[in-house]
Amino acid sequence: MSLIAFKVSVEASSLLNGEISVEQLKAISLTIGGGLLGFTAIVFSLLLFSLQANLQRLRYLDFYRFSADKQILGYLLFCLIISLSIIVTSLFIVDGYSGQYATLMLWAVVLFIFLLFFSYKRSIQLINPIEQVELIASEVSSNLGRWGKAIERKIRTEDPPTIESLTNKNFNSQRWELCKSNPMHQQSVINSIDSLCAMTKVYTELNDYIVARNTLKKVVYIIDKYIQFRQNTFIEGSPYMRTSIESEPVFDHVLSKIAYSASEAIKANDKEWVDICFDVYSQLAQVLNFYNVQHGYRLGQQIDYAIHYFTSSVKDSIHLKNNDVMINASSAVGRLATGLLETASHDNIQPLDESLRLLGSLSIANGDITVINDVMRRYGDIVFLLILNEDSKVETAIQSISKSIHSLGRLYLNQEKMTSFDLGIVNGFYGFGENSLSDRLAKQASILSSEPDKYRSLVTSLIKGICLWLKLTFNDRGELYKLDQEKNLVLFHYLYSLSETMLKILLELTDEKTDCQLRYDVYEVVNREIIALCEIREDKEVLRRIDTYGFMSSLFNLHHLIDSSDTISFLVDNILKVGFNAASINCDHGLLAKSICASAIISVNNESSQYRGLIDKKINEFSGNHKVFTNALTRLEYLGMLGRFEKERRINSYSHCAIETFCNNHLTNELREEIKYSIEAIKLNINDK
Asked: Which of 453, 447, 440, 454 has the alpha carbon at shortest distance from 387?
């Protein structure tokens, strides 16, 4: 459109040829040209002064790059040419072209204004620190892209690749040779990293942490582009490494620069700067892990180095004794650990676990509830992913995490002064909060149980993961339970809440479509957990939950899923143990009656002859509870009479458990005789006493 307007205006101006005084037009041209020339000189001086004043804090290389920007110089050079052209052409004006000359001069002034605007816009862009960072990153990205295309063109023109290079998807020998022959790309990346780190320090000193964070995080972007450029050319012991155990130069440089920034931040006691360094460490390790796992690039050594530098910086930051720094460190370590686990990478979980354990132990020693709460929440995130992970290496990670949680629990329980601080250690990992492990597992199970056939593989994975966790952590959790019992603390209930949630999930998701061996594993885990909880601490609250949440009914239902008859006597004995413990400790005659009836049903259905002997044994052991036994008789007689009524009838209107439903629908003469035997045995015991 502008070209059309220009052409039309020039053609129309020919009508004015000879109508405008040449002398006046020359005077106007000289005045405008001189004014534009002077204005160009002034603007040029002001822009250079402004750029130098705002860029003087940068490195010399960056100062030279931005202050001698080619675009600004080009715009101002065109302005100079336009002003000189107006002055020179004014000397050669003739009457026949005076109208056209006036139009061209007007268009030249418009172009001059636009060029000044572009130069001003470019100078503002160079002064803006965010734009400076973007320019550095885009320059490196474009250079790497240009070199990458050149390498690809050269590969296509060379001889075809060997069979070995085609079959080895993890290493491209041709691209590696071409990268090695032109190391300019390395220096370009290293220079940009130096610039970004220097700018970060400048803006942290100015307390501009938004710019500082954006600046240092661009390092991750540049490394990402560098890995895309190199592709699968990373190999242990390559010429890029000065020794067989040293990282590739670019990675070695970036890690050392971030480590230096972290050390400077720690010395300056700048918590915001430390947090920025931790965040960059975490993101950098995740980027390396992504290409290592998803693309098969051999970056394992670089990941090890990144995590080593990261954990070392976390350890150094502890000396600040700053709670905010410790929370930021816990958050960064947790994000990195979960990021690795989401890609099934377990090799570097242990050093991250050690960092979390160190942060947690210091927070317990200092009595800082906020830090330990965040640490335990990170452990909850890690355990959640470990439970859902089917990798064979997960057992080692689970054992390591369990030992750390166990050590933190022991450290807390051995504190001389006990306060409400226990909420800090339990809310994150054992508690009932929205982000707790219990809540996340319950939500996951709820989703899977809505359509178990659709999510069958995920259901199986969750069941296996929970069983594995409960098996491997049983001893560690048991010791914490016992220590808590000795201290007589309420922490026990929070400790129990996690295993309680896991048991409920196992009982909810296990059905007849579950693998036979897995069903047996579930039975063993559930049975051991419930009995151990009753034996470790004879607590009314625990026994109340066992009854309230239907564990007795679940144990009863679980025996239908177990094909082995060898477990029947053991199951019956444990069910009776739970019921009699509840009667002895909690005066719970209802749970006692349910346990006796459930044991009778299981024994009759599996033709076991051990029921009466077990009943006599338990009654003799708990013979002093006359009142509970008397109350249980009424309940047992009620259960024994259920089969005499029609299936639609109920003695009471409240909801019934699985045991009552079974008695109402399937009460046989044999079962009635077993229940009757238990009733007579209890009556005999009461009368004897």
From this structure: 440
- Name the pTM for this structure: 0.74
Half-sphere exposure of 327 (CA within 13 A, CB side): 11
Q: Which domain holds residue 92?
A: 2-127
Q: Which spans in 510-588 are helix H? A: 516-536, 540-548, 551-558, 568-586
Residue 417 lies in a domain: no
CB contact burial 39-51 (16+ within 10 A = b; e otherwise): ebeebbeebbeeb
Mean pLDDT of the region 37-43: 76
Q: How many CA atoms lie within 13 A of 495 on its CB side?
A: 27
User: What letter does residue 160 receive in the DSSP assignment?
Assistant: P
**With 0-12 CB in 10 A as exposed, 13-18 as middle and 19+ as buried, what is 184?**
exposed
User: Any idea of the CA torsion for 360, 364, 367, 369, to the nearest 10 degrees?
Assistant: 50
Q: What is the mean pLDDT of the chain?
A: 76
Q: How far apart are CA 668 and CA 643, in angstroms?
A: 8
Q: Which of 77, 103, 127 is the last residue of a domain?
A: 127
Mapping DSSP to helix (H, G, I), strand (E, B) and coil, where does residue 655 land?
coil
Residue 235 backbone phi and psi in degrees, to 5: -150, 145
Number of domains in the chain: 2
Element (H, E) at 626: helix 626-641
pLDDT score of 29:
77
- Is residue 126 classed as helix, strand or coil in its secondary structure? helix
Specify if 72 maps to a domain.
yes
Q: Is residue 103 part of a domain?
A: yes
Q: State the sign of the Cα–Cα–Cα–Cα dihedral 286, 287, 288, 291.
A: positive
Q: Which of 127, 157, 172 is the last residue of a domain?
A: 127
With pLDDT > 70 as the criterion, what percentage of the chain qualifies? 71
Q: Are 303 and 288 in contact (CB under 8 A)?
A: yes
- 274 in any annotated domain: no
- Check: CB of residue 50 under 8 Å from CB of residue 123: yes
Contacts with 524 (C-beta within 8 Å, 6 or more apart), sequence order: none
Residue 229, Cβ density class (10 Å: 0-12 exposed, 13-18 middle, ≥19 buried): buried
The residue to which tokens 């139009």 are assigned: 103
3-state SS of 552-565 is: HHHHHHHHHHCCCH
Structure tokens at 334: 């947790």
Alpha carbons within 13 angstroms on the beta-carbon side of residue 652 total 10
Among the listed ranges 165-174, 234-243, 247-256, 390-399, which one has the minimum average pLDDT value? 234-243
Tell me the C-alpha to C-alpha distance, in Å, between residue 427 and each of 355, 369, 486, 595: 20, 10, 22, 33
